[in-house]
Design goal:
By secondary structure, the protein is α/β, with parallel strands linked by helices. Helices cover about 25% and strands about 25% of the residues. The protein folds into 2 domains: about 180 residues, Medium-chain alcohol dehydrogenases, catalytic domain (Quinone Oxidoreductase, Chain A, domain 1, Alpha-Beta Complex); about 140 residues, Rossmann fold (3-Layer(aba) Sandwich). The strands form 3 sheets. It has a 6-stranded parallel β-sheet with strand order 12-11-10-13-14-15, sandwiched between helices. Strands 8-3-4-5-9 form a 5-stranded antiparallel β-sheet. One of its GO terms (molecular function) is oxidoreductase activity.
Length: about 350
């Protein structure tokens, strides 16, 4: 029986920047009226979790419970939750949350929320750990509701706005949730960048840098949209083989070429139309700019080091009508994109 208040559970806690993830007993205060208690069955481990573990995004307090690709079962529903179909036992995926008031949110582009960083990195209830629903057994505040969820916890108190109910007609089983947990970020980001940000044409030449969850999702979304030319880029041959099996038309191992731009120009002398970078590696970003063809667009999705910079030739940029855009969570509304991906 789960108590109404002071709910005991276990979570992986990062005590301070660069500290390891340590499994320990923690306490959740109580489920507020707009919140849901979720028993976590699976969670992804995203590169962003590692970046925050290392203190590279200076927003929010420590200690902290991270994790933002959760999938689990509803165990309690707050009295004020608006979705009256949500009930105990429901299968749910967890994603980021936003203010729902700014212009991007009002337009359905929730990933571009003007308060995204504050809310998701600091915590939904407030940016101070003192506002968090999580504390240690001796009462010390722990930053929680990271991206609305802090999914590296057996039980999590989650705002309704981070809940995506599994579609009733999707056929998703509890076992499927293990591979679908990254819907909350990785898959959503890769596919959303293709569908919402770049809006590719079938004749587009797309290069995707990094064949992790984000890159593979971008690859598969592009192929599902009818894009014929998708170049998978990585340094691991096994990942490139996987990309080929999922529809990549070309592969490029950047360990085998002097730089990315040269490798892509050998395949396409006029350059490529779009590049999605999921790596955050600054040298690849710089080379990507050179690899773009006329009207080419570089979408930066991966987390680069704080303070890093890129250089451009403004005249060359203007003459060739190039663009560089940043994209968070694929400019997606999780409630709609996650459902679409489940049935894609």
């Amino acid at each position: 029986m789960i108590p109404q208040k002071k709910i005991p559970t276990k979570a992986f806690v990062v005590d301070s920047p660069k500290s390891p993830f340590v499994l320990q007993d923690v306490v959740l205060d109580e489920v507020r009226e707009n919140e849901v208690l979720v028993e976590m069955k699976y969670t992804g481990l995203c590169h962003t979790d590692i970046v925050v573990q290392n203190g590279a995004i200076p927003v929010g307090d420590y200690p902290a419970v991270l994790g933002h690709e959760g999938a689990g079962i509803v165990r309690r529903v707050g009295s004020g939750v608006k979705d009256k179909s949500l009930s105990e036992g429901d299968q749910v995926f967890l994603s980021f949350t936003t203010c729902h008031n700014c212009a991007p949110c009002q337009e359905g582009r929730h990933g571009f929320c003007s308060r995204f960083t504050e809310i998701n990195f600091g915590g939904v209830r407030g940016i101070s750990a003192a506002d968090s629903p999580i504390s240690s057994v001796d009462g010390k505040a722990i930053r929680g509701q990271f991206f609305g969820q802090s999914s590296m916890s057996k039980l999590a108190i989650v705002p309704e706005t981070s809940i995506v109910k599994s579609p009733a007609d999707s056929g998703v089983t509890d076992a499927d949730m293990a591979s679908l947990a990254p819907l909350g970020c990785g898959y959503l980001t890769g596919a959303g960048t293709v569908l919402n940000v770049l809006k590719l044409k079938s004749a587009s030449r797309l290069a995707v840098l990094g064949m992790g969850a984000v890159g593979l999702a971008a690859l598969m979304a592009a192929r599902a949209q009818g894009v014929e030319t998708v170049i998978a880029v990585d340094i691991v041959d096994a990942k490139l083989e996987l990309a080929t099996s999922l529809g990549a038309s070309h592969t490029l191992n950047t360990k085998l070429v002097p730089d990315l731009a040269q490798g892509l120009h050998e395949l396409f002398p006029d350059g490529v139309d779009q590049i999605i970078d999921t790596t955050g590696v600054v040298s690849l970003l710089q080379s990507s700019i050179k690899a773009l063809g006329h009207e080419g667009t570089l979408a930066i999705v991966g987390v680069a080091p704080a303070g890093a910079s890129l250089s451009i030739d403004p005249l060359e940029f203007m003459i060739n009508c190039k663009r560089v855009v940043g994209a968070i969570e694929g400019s997606s509304n999780p409630a709609t994109v996650s459902h679409s991906l489940c049935t894609l």
